[in-house]
Amino acid sequence: MPTRHPTYHGALRIYTALLVGGVLTGCSHIPWLGAEKDPTPPTKLTTLVPEVTATTLWSARLTKGSEGRRLYLVPAVGGGRVYVADARGRVVAADAGSGHILWEKDTKLPLSAGPELSGERLILGTSNGQVIALSSTDGKEQWCAPVSGEVLSVPRRTDDGKVIIHTLDDTVFALDEAKGTELWRVPYSAPVLTLRGSSTPAIAPKGVVVGLAGGKLVKLDPTDGTPLWEVIITAPGGRSELARITDIDADPFIVGKVVFVDTYNGDLAAVDLDGGGILWRRELSSHAGLTATPNDLFITDSADLVWGADPAAGGGRWKQERLRNRQLTAPALIGNLISVGDLEGWLHLIAQTDGRIVGRTRVSKKAITARPLVVGNRLYVYATDGTLAVLTAGTVPGGGGRSGAQSAAVGDQAERTAQATKAAKSATLAAPAAPTSLTKDPGKSAGTFAD
Question: Fewer Cβ within 10 Å of end Cβ, the chain: N or C?
Fold first, then answer.
């Protein structure tokens, strides 16, 4: 179980965060100070034999990327095009099949989030509190609107023509999609110290679900912003400001009538979409994110373990810990695989059934911080140096149905064989730990994850 208590290196890192305005980047994503040795170094990768191959259809460095800053610049795909943006203000549209650049636009703005593709518009947020709309056809600016703070979550469009913005100061805005005029805003009080990030709003048929700093999840009426319900997922606790950080930076994920959400230093929970009641809650800290289907729940936790869980009750099914401290992205699903990117530009493929690593390919020498985007049978992976790679991946032979114990045995044998022969240097296979046990915690409604 990942620790919920601040560590020595986390306490040191907080001072740097305080100097830059009271926001703290997720602990696993802050460069170590000076010449001090990082006490939680990333797990080294071992060259292994793959079960699944990821094929790169094309790869190109289309922009300057985030330039080492942790921003929420992500690819958007539609109409046979892929769109990306960088921190210097450049927006590029490329042919999704070949990577050929169709147009590029220098907005001269410090872009920090997006784009969101909405019909013929691209919507992006900036570090200086602006939201901009460009034509997806040629990049021409359509409008630019002010908001109350830095935008570090992807703008989202509602079916009735609103653009929902969640700013770093925990204000939620609705802008008119066509004109950029403000329709409503709902301000929330953010704690003194927070993680540097904001969860992206999740759009439901009759509501907007937003995770806030301080561990609160809210559902707002998209018509006028009226709160429909508010629920505390994890209440701040602990003796220090660091220990009391319980932000929801991971994007809420809606499946049917259930919202799945996770907090940093806190809990993983399932919430009733209609009424806001907590269906179950389990202790698991995360700020990278999660994804879910009606039958499966997958989470990247704050120690960079990847978990498979039961969405109905939250029980842990398996965990993959051979990528510990590698600053993983939120998981994305393609076929019967889970894909996550890491701090060194590697894309890892994991079997959904038991968590074993079945493939790996390198997209860039720089970090991947944005969740891989899956469109059809393709993965769009955007690295922080501006490299965009489009890949396809095979499927796990036999559906990946081996048990965790069997997978571990096979994986260990494969590792010994590969190390002995020094073969297959460009691809890897790793095995997960055995399926997790579950312990009861009187303080939680449905127990906790446990090692």
Answer: C
Q: Hey, which residues does 232 pair with through a beta bridge? A: 216
CA gap 418, 430 in Å, rounded:
11
Omega within 30 of 0 (cis) for the link into 115: yes
Kindly give the pairing relationship between strand 378-382 and strand 387-393: antiparallel
What single string gives the DSSP state of each residue in 262-331? E-TTSEEEEEETTT--EEEEEE---SSEEEE-SS-EEEE-TTS-EEEE-TTT--EEEEE-TTTTS-PPPP
* Alpha-carbon dihedral sign for residues 294, 255, 374, 250: negative
pLDDT attached to residue 341:
98
Q: Do β-strands 373-375 and 378-382 pair in parallel, antiparallel, or remain unpaired?
A: antiparallel
Distances (CA, A) of 36 to 70, 158, 441: 22, 47, 37
Query: Can you tell me whether residue 12 is helix, strand or coil?
Result: helix
pLDDT of res. 11: 36
**What span, in angstroms and rounded, lies between the C-alpha atoms of 308 and 284?**
12
C-alpha span between 190 and 171 (Å, rounded) = 9
DSSP code of 14? H
Matching CATH number, 45-68+329-451, of 3.40.190.10, 3.40.50.620, 2.40.10.480, 3.40.50.300: 2.40.10.480
Q: What is the pLDDT of residue 10?
A: 37
Bridge partners of 307? 299, 319
Q: Which residue has the tokens 């009606």?
A: 294
d(CA 258, CA 371): 21
Q: Domain ranges in the chain?
A: 45-68+329-451
Spatial neighbors of 121 by CB under 8 A, at least 6 apart, are: 133, 134, 135, 136, 142, 177
Residue with tokens 């094929």: 55
Which spans in 22-167 are helix H? none
What gap in Å lies between CA 66 and CA 82, rounded to an integer? 18
For 20, the token pair is: 């830059």
Predicted pLDDT of residue 242: 78
Q: Which parts of the chain sit beneath pLDDT 50?
A: 1-22, 25-33, 400-448, 450-451
Give the whole-angstrom CA distance, residue 358 versus residue 35: 36
d(CA 379, CA 14): 35
At residue 449, the pLDDT reads: 58
> Structure pTM?
0.84
